[in-house]
Amino acid sequence: MLDALHHVALICTDYDRSRRFYVELLGLELIHEVYRAERQSWKADLRIGTAQLELFSFPAPAARPSYPEASGLRHLAFSVADLDPVVARLEAAGVAVEPIRIDPYTDQRFTFFSDPDGLPLELYETR
């Protein structure tokens, strides 16, 4: 059902410090970086092998990692060749899946759902 790990997203409390850590210290390749003025948020896409780490900043993120915009783990994403049958399978099993969205930077379709403990998970279509 799942093909591979597409990306892991982290929200940091100090963007410059975290960017230096992941790029300069750990050697992840900076693929793309954008400042999203409407959210006062930096976003960097970093390559690690065949997967990516998304690094986000937000003004004063909440301290608890259980919230989507909190520091720490944001979500785990899994790539799928075709989103629709995977969503249908999850919904048939009683899993709530958010409406499918389109990433404004890549034009790819994606959606979110949660594991039984509430960990946010993403399905990212890679047709």
Automatic annotation (TrEMBL):
Which InterPro entries would you find in this protein's record?
Fosfomycin_Res_Enzymes (IPR051332), Glyas_Bleomycin-R_OHBP_Dase (IPR029068), Glyas_Fos-R_dOase_dom (IPR004360), VOC_core (IPR037523), YwkD-like_dom (IPR037478)
**Superkingdom, natural source:** Bacteria
Keyword annotations from UniProtKB, A to Z = Metal-binding
What are this entry's molecular-function GO terms?
A: metal ion binding
* VOC domain residues: 4-126
NCBIfam families membership: PRK11478.1
This one is known as VOC family protein
Q: Which Gene3D superfamilies does the record match to this protein?
A: 2,3-Dihydroxybiphenyl 1,2-Dioxygenase, domain 1 (3.10.180.10)
